[in-house]
Backbone:
């Protein structure tokens, strides 16, 4: 559905299927994977979302500890809100 290697913000798409996708980012601090999957439910779909981070230097763990509150309270909620709003817009107009 999306060509592998296509950039999606700072992430490179590894693969996209109808109900799942994996993207990757690699820099001097982290090698991370963003994974999402949709599971049908009686009311629509449930989103499963995960980020897996591999350390690439001695700075990875201290860096992640330092930015943890920022990620948990600002970045991830904003990303999930954007996904929800996009999904709602897309499928409200389709019905």
Residues:
């Amino acid at each position: 559905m999306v060509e592998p290697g296509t950039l999606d913000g700072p992430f490179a798409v590894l693969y996209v299927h109808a109900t799942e996708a994996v993207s990757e980012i690699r820099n001097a601090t982290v090698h991370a994977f963003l994974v999402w999957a949709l599971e049908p439910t009686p009311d629509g779909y449930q989103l499963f979302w995960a980020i897996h981070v591999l350390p690439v230097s001695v700075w990875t763990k201290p860096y992640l500890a330092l930015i943890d509150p920022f990620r948990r309270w600002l970045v991830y909620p904003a990303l999930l809100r954007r996904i929800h709003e996009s999904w709602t817009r897309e499928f409200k107009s389709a019905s």
In short: The mean pLDDT is 89. The chain has one domain: 7-94. The first strand starts at residue 7 and ends at 8. The chain is about 35% helix and 40% strand.
